[in-house]
Design brief:
- The structure is a single chain.
- This protein is an alpha+beta fold.
- It is built from 7 helices and 17 strands.
- The strands form 3 sheets. The chain has a 6-stranded mixed sheet, sandwiched between helices. Strands 16-13-14-15-12-17 form a 6-stranded antiparallel sheet.
- It starts with 10 loop residues before the first helix and ends in a 10-residue tail after the last strand.
- The relative contact order is 0.18.
């Protein structure tokens, strides 16, 4: 088993996610994806409680919690004192509490880091292992949800809480898709309801991973904790860093990088064909005259249905589009793509 894998402590939810694995197919691109319900077993939901929860987290993460509206989410990062990311996170309010979604592989690292400074605060963290996270994407995803829920989120209202103990989040990239956060009973009902009323496929979290790679949303697993500034993952383009909120862990180094213009890295999508699937933290090299030199690292990768390997990587800025690239130990050459972000949330 890979060290960044995670088995849910709740056996019933684990069983539900296993049902999705029975339908596993290689991920499709957003333009080819039919209506698909996706299990999110590689991600988890963290929530906070306590009278000091908001003020404490304000001093821990890069975004400004005071500007976060209940009907919006925001991207953010949790960094160490050197300004390097322990994880990136999707931040929102769930049942009235500040909450976020992160990769399962980094949850213990993040929880330990946050608790380290919280001994004098009324602040608690809980991983909601009894909560189900599902994704829905593909053709007619928006119109399908409109037939299931009375209200669904949009680009102007990216988070909607329904009366059925269910929270919906909307993402415009790479095309319309949604996260559904609910309890086990409602998740089982929803799966059955969609199966009976619509032509729908099921897939596991690799499909959501592929869509995140295509969208340019950073995927930070355990192997890459503490290695990169948030700007290297393009988080400043996603309004994940506040330059006016005041102090937080790593703020001095992150601000210095920004205002001195010394960030030399960015997030890219790489595409190639190979029998080799690179792991996170694999080294990427660029052709330099007659030799090769290190120019970046892999964050995440997946094999997609058309035979391509999709890789999300952080690379040096000074790489031109025609530069020859390869993964160390793999001779297959790589095509490089950059991202164009559009606003998702008014927060």
């Amino acid at each position: 088993m890979k060290k960044n894998s995670y088995i849910y402590k709740n056996d019933k939810i684990s069983h539900l996610y296993m049902k999705f694995r029975e339908h596993f197919t290689l991920p499709l691109s957003s333009s080819e994806l039919p209506l698909t319900l996706i299990s999110m077993e590689e991600w988890c939901l963290i929530t906070t409680t306590g009278t000091d929860a908001l003020s404490y987290m304000q001093g821990q993460i890069t975004s400004d919690i005071n500007k976060l509206h209940v009907n919006h989410y925001c991207h953010s990062a949790h960094c160490n004192a050197k300004g390097k990311m322990l994880t990136n996170l999707l931040l929102f309010f769930y049942k009235g509490h500040l909450s976020w979604i992160i990769r399962n592989s980094v949850r213990n690292i993040q929880i330990a880091a946050l608790k380290k400074y919280a001994i004098f605060s009324d602040f608690n963290l809980t991983a909601l292992d009894r909560t189900v996270i599902l994704g829905i994407a593909g053709h007619e995803a928006k119109s399908t949800l409109n037939q299931i829920f009375p209200v669904i989120p949009s680009i102007h209202c990216s988070v909607v809480e329904n009366t059925s103990n269910t929270l919906l989040l909307y993402f415009p990239l790479p095309s319309d898709r949604f996260l559904i956060i609910t309890n086990l009973t409602r998740a089982q009902q929803l799966k059955q309801q969609l199966s009976q009323r619509f032509i729908i496929k099921f897939n596991n979290s690799k499909q959501w991973l592929a869509l995140d790679i295509e969208a340019g949303y950073p995927i930070l697993d355990q192997d890459n904790c503490g290695q990169f500034f948030p700007q290297a993952a393009n988080l400043h383009y996603m309004k994940a860093i506040s330059w006016t909120k005041g102090c937080y862990i790593g703020q001095e180094m992150i601000s210095r990088l920004q205002y001195r213009g010394i960030n030399k890295r960015a997030l890219y999508m790489l595409v190639f064909k190979s029998i080799y699937l690179p792991s996170s933290n694999s080294v990427i090299e660029m052709k330099y005259f007659d030799s090769w030199k290190k120019c970046g690292k892999v964050l995440a990768s997946c094999r997609v249905d058309n035979g391509q390997i999709w890789v999300q990587a952080i690379l040096d800025y000074n790489i031109s589009s025609g530069t020859e690239l390869r993964i160390t130990g793999c001779q297959d050459l790589i095509e490089m793509k950059s991202f164009s972000y559009k606003e998702e949330s008014n927060s």
